[in-house]
Specification:
Elements lengths: L10 H15 L11 H14 L1 H5 L2 H7 L3 H7 L5 E4 L10 E3 L2 E5 L3 E2 L2 E2 L4 H14 L6 H11 L2
Antiparallel strand pairs: 1-3, 2-3, 4-5
Helix pairs in contact: 2-6, 4-5, 5-6
Enzyme class: hydrolase
EC number: 3.2.1.17
GO molecular function: lysozyme activity
């Protein structure tokens, strides 16, 4: 059994790593108009989570390109599904489409948020709120993300 290599990072080192990661994902902002800061943060988070290719080809990006933040914030909520070839029905309802089984991560199972992927859905809710572009400053955005993450 190998032990995980652990290193403690300083805040400055973390900031450098974050900057490098964010820079990689800024490619998704190409061909988009200038947007509110919260919208940009929401779209970068979506791209980081869904992938650059998925974000670039998404309805979310199409709506942002039109300047339609309300529709972009709704479109990101369509990204709340996971798929498998063989479903685990003990986790809840699965839909069968195009040879795969899809699970809606927003569903409750036995009266509680599902254990399979409810976290993905809560992330989409956060991204949706950010994409709407209603938060106006860095502190408000940071406070929201911090509250949402708990």
């Amino acid at each position: 059994m190998t032990e995980a290599i652990q290193k403690e990072y300083t805040k400055k080192e973390c900031d450098v790593l974050l900057d490098k990661t964010l820079y990689k994902y800024t490619i998704v902002l190409n061909n988009l108009p200038v947007m509110p800061v919260s919208t940009t943060v929401g779209f970068l988070d979506f791209a980081y989570n869904a992938g650059i290719n998925a974000a670039n080809n998404s309805t979310v990006k199409k709506r942002l390109a039109e300047g339609n933040y309300v529709q972009a914030s709704k479109a990101v909520l369509q990204w709340r599904y996971v798929s498998q070839k063989k479903p685990d029905y003990s986790k809840g309802r699965w839909e069968h489409r195009n040879g795969k089984y899809y699970y809606d991560c927003s569903q409750y199972h036995q009266g509680k948020p599902n254990k399979l992927c409810y976290g993905l859905y809560t992330r989409r809710l956060m991204e949706s709120e950010l994409l709407a572009g209603t938060m106006t400053n860095k502190e408000e955005i940071q406070s929201y993300i911090h509250r949402f993450g708990k």
